[in-house]
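From the shared-data thread, chain only:
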Amino acid sequence: MFSRVLVPLDGSKVGEAAIPAIAQLVDKLAKGTKVEVILIGVITLLRHWVVVGEATAPVSYTEEELKLIKDNIDTYLVKTGEPLKKKGITVKTMVSTGNAADEIIEAVEDTKADLIAMSTHGRSGLRRLAFGSVTDKVLHRSNVPVLMVRAPEGTKNQ
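Structure, as tokens:
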């Protein structure tokens, strides 16, 4: 059985689809077992675009801006983890910066997670090729099992 689950979240309702699945899994399969859930948010863009007249230029975030972004993500993760905490599950949060798939794989190693639970947008074919899939990259590179949860139909664009 698993004892430490990593759940990557991107701030969308689609991403949050894994939360109820983990709560149900713990209720059904791990009742009485101490399970820790680590919610991770990854900052993938370290700069933003500034428009001046007809020109645009990439500008790196300042340390203050990055801190504010990290704080906002952590606040979101804490709030999103509340339903799990109410069920008696230990919830931790972490925020990292970089390529999402790379950061998730690294977080598995750092936290010694034995399961990754993540949502999928359910894209296939050309849309998957065009947009890429963090879930797909994690699935193929992970050394631990990956539970993929398809988001409910109504949340596809949220």
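The longest helix spans residues 63-86.
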